[in-house]
Design goal:
- This protein has 2 helices and 23 strands.
- With 258 residues, it is mostly beta strands.
- It has 3 domains: 84 residues, Sandwich (Immunoglobulin-like); 82 residues, Immunoglobulins (Immunoglobulin-like, Sandwich), CATH 2.60.40.10; 42 residues, no CATH class.
- The strands form 7 sheets. Strands 2, 5, 6, 8, 9 and 10 form a 6-stranded mixed β-sheet that branches.
- Keywords: Disulfide bond, Immunoglobulin domain.
- InterPro entries: Caspase-like_dom_sf (IPR029030), Caspase-related_regulators (IPR052039), Ig-like_dom (IPR007110), Ig-like_dom_sf (IPR036179), Ig-like_fold (IPR013783), Ig_sub (IPR003599), Ig_sub2 (IPR003598), Pept_C14_caspase (IPR011600).
Protein backbone atom coordinates (compact mmCIF):
# COMPACT_ATOMS: atom_id res chain seq x y z
CA UNK A 1 0.00 0.00 0.00
CA UNK A 2 1.13 3.64 -0.45
CA UNK A 3 1.45 3.97 3.32
CA UNK A 4 4.30 1.49 3.15
CA UNK A 5 6.51 4.41 2.00
CA UNK A 6 6.60 7.70 3.88
CA UNK A 7 8.49 10.70 2.53
CA UNK A 8 10.28 12.32 5.46
CA UNK A 9 11.94 15.17 3.55
CA UNK A 10 10.45 16.75 0.47
CA UNK A 11 12.62 18.57 -2.07
CA UNK A 12 12.23 22.35 -2.09
CA UNK A 13 12.05 24.87 -4.93
CA UNK A 14 14.98 27.22 -5.46
CA UNK A 15 15.60 30.43 -7.36
CA UNK A 16 19.23 30.78 -8.48
CA UNK A 17 21.46 32.44 -11.09
CA UNK A 18 22.39 30.60 -14.26
CA UNK A 19 25.36 28.30 -13.69
CA UNK A 20 24.71 27.89 -9.97
CA UNK A 21 25.34 24.38 -8.58
CA UNK A 22 23.03 22.82 -5.99
CA UNK A 23 21.44 19.53 -4.95
CA UNK A 24 17.79 18.64 -4.58
CA UNK A 25 17.13 16.35 -1.61
CA UNK A 26 14.46 13.74 -1.01
CA UNK A 27 14.31 11.34 1.93
CA UNK A 28 11.86 8.53 2.67
CA UNK A 29 11.44 5.50 4.89
CA UNK A 30 9.80 2.16 4.14
CA UNK A 31 9.46 -1.45 5.23
CA UNK A 32 12.00 -2.63 2.67
CA UNK A 33 15.05 -0.99 1.04
CA UNK A 34 13.98 1.92 -1.20
CA UNK A 35 14.89 2.92 -4.73
CA UNK A 36 14.92 6.53 -5.96
CA UNK A 37 14.40 7.88 -9.48
CA UNK A 38 14.32 11.59 -10.39
CA UNK A 39 12.25 13.08 -13.20
CA UNK A 40 12.28 16.53 -14.79
CA UNK A 41 9.58 18.35 -16.70
CA UNK A 42 9.94 21.06 -19.29
CA UNK A 43 7.19 22.42 -21.52
CA UNK A 44 4.69 19.96 -19.99
CA UNK A 45 6.77 16.90 -20.98
CA UNK A 46 8.22 14.71 -18.21
CA UNK A 47 11.49 12.81 -18.62
CA UNK A 48 13.26 10.27 -16.47
CA UNK A 49 16.75 11.56 -15.68
CA UNK A 50 19.30 8.86 -16.58
CA UNK A 51 21.43 7.79 -13.64
CA UNK A 52 19.52 9.98 -11.16
CA UNK A 53 18.86 7.15 -8.71
CA UNK A 54 20.09 8.62 -5.42
CA UNK A 55 18.26 10.63 -2.74
CA UNK A 56 20.30 13.70 -3.75
CA UNK A 57 20.14 15.13 -7.28
CA UNK A 58 23.11 17.36 -8.20
CA UNK A 59 22.16 20.15 -10.63
CA UNK A 60 24.02 22.92 -12.39
CA UNK A 61 21.19 25.32 -13.15
CA UNK A 62 20.98 26.29 -16.81
CA UNK A 63 17.27 26.71 -17.47
CA UNK A 64 14.13 26.69 -15.34
CA UNK A 65 12.67 23.20 -14.88
CA UNK A 66 10.35 21.18 -12.64
CA UNK A 67 11.55 18.10 -10.77
CA UNK A 68 10.03 15.23 -8.82
CA UNK A 69 11.37 12.04 -7.28
CA UNK A 70 9.72 8.60 -7.40
CA UNK A 71 10.43 6.23 -4.52
CA UNK A 72 9.84 2.46 -4.88
CA UNK A 73 10.12 -0.41 -2.45
CA UNK A 74 10.67 -4.10 -3.16
CA UNK A 75 6.90 -4.78 -3.07
CA UNK A 76 6.25 -2.48 -6.05
CA UNK A 77 4.81 0.25 -3.87
CA UNK A 78 5.66 3.71 -5.21
CA UNK A 79 5.14 7.33 -4.19
CA UNK A 80 6.15 10.62 -5.81
CA UNK A 81 7.57 13.62 -4.04
CA UNK A 82 6.20 17.13 -4.51
CA UNK A 83 7.01 18.78 -7.82
CA UNK A 84 9.54 21.53 -7.21
CA UNK A 85 10.87 24.26 -9.46
CA UNK A 86 14.47 25.15 -10.10
CA UNK A 87 14.03 28.71 -11.35
CA UNK A 88 17.03 30.09 -13.22
CA UNK A 89 17.38 33.87 -13.16
CA UNK A 90 19.21 34.77 -16.36
CA UNK A 91 19.14 38.44 -15.36
CA UNK A 92 21.83 37.88 -12.71
CA UNK A 93 24.09 35.57 -14.71
CA UNK A 94 26.88 38.12 -14.57
CA UNK A 95 26.69 38.64 -10.85
CA UNK A 96 26.91 35.19 -9.34
CA UNK A 97 26.59 35.15 -5.55
CA UNK A 98 29.82 35.02 -3.64
CA UNK A 99 30.98 31.85 -1.90
CA UNK A 100 29.56 33.33 1.30
CA UNK A 101 25.99 33.28 -0.04
CA UNK A 102 23.96 30.83 2.03
CA UNK A 103 20.74 31.07 0.09
CA UNK A 104 19.23 34.09 1.84
CA UNK A 105 16.86 36.13 -0.38
CA UNK A 106 18.52 38.65 -2.69
CA UNK A 107 16.18 40.88 -4.70
CA UNK A 108 17.24 41.24 -8.34
CA UNK A 109 14.15 42.99 -9.76
CA UNK A 110 12.52 45.85 -7.84
CA UNK A 111 9.04 47.27 -8.56
CA UNK A 112 8.82 50.58 -10.38
CA UNK A 113 6.63 53.65 -9.87
CA UNK A 114 3.25 53.50 -11.61
CA UNK A 115 0.85 56.24 -12.76
CA UNK A 116 -2.47 54.88 -13.97
CA UNK A 117 -5.99 55.93 -14.75
CA UNK A 118 -8.84 54.52 -12.69
CA UNK A 119 -9.95 51.13 -14.05
CA UNK A 120 -6.61 50.24 -15.64
CA UNK A 121 -4.70 47.13 -14.46
CA UNK A 122 -2.03 47.66 -11.82
CA UNK A 123 0.99 45.36 -11.89
CA UNK A 124 4.10 45.51 -9.71
CA UNK A 125 6.89 42.95 -9.84
CA UNK A 126 9.50 41.67 -7.41
CA UNK A 127 11.98 38.91 -8.25
CA UNK A 128 14.38 37.44 -5.70
CA UNK A 129 16.82 34.56 -5.73
CA UNK A 130 17.07 32.25 -2.73
CA UNK A 131 17.59 28.67 -1.58
CA UNK A 132 14.89 27.68 -0.86
CA UNK A 133 12.93 29.91 -3.24
CA UNK A 134 11.65 32.94 -1.31
CA UNK A 135 8.03 33.57 -0.47
CA UNK A 136 6.65 37.01 -1.24
CA UNK A 137 4.46 39.44 0.70
CA UNK A 138 3.32 42.83 -0.58
CA UNK A 139 2.48 45.88 1.53
CA UNK A 140 0.59 49.09 0.79
CA UNK A 141 1.27 52.11 2.99
CA UNK A 142 2.79 49.74 5.54
CA UNK A 143 -0.30 47.51 5.62
CA UNK A 144 -0.01 43.81 4.73
CA UNK A 145 -2.02 42.86 1.63
CA UNK A 146 -3.48 39.45 2.45
CA UNK A 147 -4.11 38.39 -1.16
CA UNK A 148 -0.83 39.60 -2.65
CA UNK A 149 1.69 36.82 -1.98
CA UNK A 150 3.23 36.33 -5.42
CA UNK A 151 6.10 37.87 -7.34
CA UNK A 152 3.64 39.96 -9.27
CA UNK A 153 1.12 42.14 -7.53
CA UNK A 154 -1.86 42.23 -9.86
CA UNK A 155 -5.02 44.36 -9.55
CA UNK A 156 -7.17 44.01 -12.70
CA UNK A 157 -9.03 47.30 -12.25
CA UNK A 158 -7.24 49.87 -10.10
CA UNK A 159 -9.27 52.15 -7.82
CA UNK A 160 -8.38 55.42 -6.15
CA UNK A 161 -7.88 53.54 -2.90
CA UNK A 162 -5.12 51.50 -4.58
CA UNK A 163 -2.94 54.61 -4.66
CA UNK A 164 -0.11 54.69 -2.15
CA UNK A 165 3.38 53.45 -1.39
CA UNK A 166 4.12 49.79 -2.11
CA UNK A 167 6.96 47.46 -1.21
CA UNK A 168 7.52 43.71 -1.10
CA UNK A 169 9.31 41.41 1.32
CA UNK A 170 11.01 38.26 0.00
CA UNK A 171 11.81 35.74 2.75
CA UNK A 172 12.94 32.20 3.46
CA UNK A 173 14.31 30.51 6.58
CA UNK A 174 17.68 32.24 6.05
CA UNK A 175 16.25 35.74 6.33
CA UNK A 176 14.36 38.41 4.43
CA UNK A 177 15.05 41.18 1.91
CA UNK A 178 12.83 44.19 1.18
CA UNK A 179 12.38 46.00 -2.11
CA UNK A 180 12.61 49.72 -2.56
CA UNK A 181 9.39 51.55 -1.74
CA UNK A 182 7.60 52.84 -4.85
CA UNK A 183 4.66 55.19 -5.27
CA UNK A 184 1.55 54.30 -7.22
CA UNK A 185 -0.76 57.08 -8.45
CA UNK A 186 -4.26 56.23 -9.65
CA UNK A 187 -6.21 59.02 -11.36
CA UNK A 188 -5.29 62.65 -11.85
CA UNK A 189 -3.22 64.71 -9.45
CA UNK A 190 -3.98 68.31 -8.52
CA UNK A 191 -1.57 70.62 -6.76
CA UNK A 192 -3.02 73.26 -4.45
CA UNK A 193 -0.49 75.63 -2.89
CA UNK A 194 -1.19 78.13 -0.12
CA UNK A 195 1.10 81.14 -0.13
CA UNK A 196 1.54 84.12 2.21
CA UNK A 197 -0.33 87.32 1.40
CA UNK A 198 -2.55 85.40 -1.01
CA UNK A 199 -6.12 85.51 0.26
CA UNK A 200 -8.55 82.94 -1.13
CA UNK A 201 -12.00 83.04 0.51
CA UNK A 202 -13.35 79.79 1.85
CA UNK A 203 -16.28 79.85 -0.59
CA UNK A 204 -13.91 80.15 -3.56
CA UNK A 205 -11.85 77.25 -2.22
CA UNK A 206 -14.95 75.08 -1.90
CA UNK A 207 -16.01 75.91 -5.47
CA UNK A 208 -12.51 75.05 -6.72
CA UNK A 209 -12.63 71.72 -4.92
CA UNK A 210 -15.97 70.83 -6.51
CA UNK A 211 -14.64 71.77 -9.95
CA UNK A 212 -11.75 69.39 -9.41
CA UNK A 213 -13.94 66.63 -8.02
CA UNK A 214 -13.40 64.52 -11.13
CA UNK A 215 -9.77 64.10 -10.02
CA UNK A 216 -8.80 61.33 -7.67
CA UNK A 217 -5.64 62.40 -5.89
CA UNK A 218 -4.83 65.74 -4.24
CA UNK A 219 -1.41 66.88 -3.07
CA UNK A 220 -1.70 69.75 -0.61
CA UNK A 221 1.41 71.80 0.11
CA UNK A 222 1.39 74.42 2.86
CA UNK A 223 4.42 76.69 3.18
CA UNK A 224 4.65 77.96 6.75
CA UNK A 225 8.28 78.95 7.15
CA UNK A 226 10.01 81.64 5.13
CA UNK A 227 13.52 82.97 5.60
CA UNK A 228 12.51 86.63 5.67
CA UNK A 229 8.96 86.36 6.95
CA UNK A 230 7.42 85.41 10.31
CA UNK A 231 6.02 81.89 10.62
CA UNK A 232 2.50 81.64 9.24
CA UNK A 233 -0.50 79.81 10.65
CA UNK A 234 -2.94 80.23 7.76
CA UNK A 235 -1.32 77.66 5.41
CA UNK A 236 -1.45 75.00 8.14
CA UNK A 237 -5.15 75.60 8.73
CA UNK A 238 -5.86 75.76 4.99
CA UNK A 239 -4.21 72.39 4.43
CA UNK A 240 -6.12 70.86 7.35
CA UNK A 241 -9.50 72.17 6.20
CA UNK A 242 -8.89 71.27 2.57
CA UNK A 243 -7.76 67.77 3.52
CA UNK A 244 -11.01 67.09 5.37
CA UNK A 245 -13.10 68.48 2.53
CA UNK A 246 -11.25 66.57 -0.18
CA UNK A 247 -11.41 63.28 1.75
CA UNK A 248 -15.20 63.67 2.04
CA UNK A 249 -15.27 63.97 -1.76
CA UNK A 250 -13.38 60.70 -2.16
CA UNK A 251 -9.93 62.09 -2.85
CA UNK A 252 -6.72 60.37 -1.84
CA UNK A 253 -5.02 63.25 -0.01
CA UNK A 254 -1.30 63.76 0.55
CA UNK A 255 -0.50 66.75 2.79
CA UNK A 256 2.94 68.29 3.03
CA UNK A 257 4.26 71.25 5.00
CA UNK A 258 7.26 73.39 4.06
Amino acid sequence: SPAAIVITEQPVSVSVPAGYSLSLRCRARGRTPLQYQWFCQQQSVSHQIPGATKPDLPITAQQSQLYTCRINDLHRNAVFSDWVKVEVLQCVARGLPSQLWRGEPVIVVHPSEQRLEVGKPLQLQCVAMGVPAPSYQWYQNGNLLEQQKKKKLWIPQAKVSDSGTYLCCASNHHGEHWTNAVDVYIGKMFLIFTKPKEVMPCLLLRNLVFLLATGKIALLVGNNHYQHHPNLMAPLMDVFELSRLLEKLGFQVVSLLD
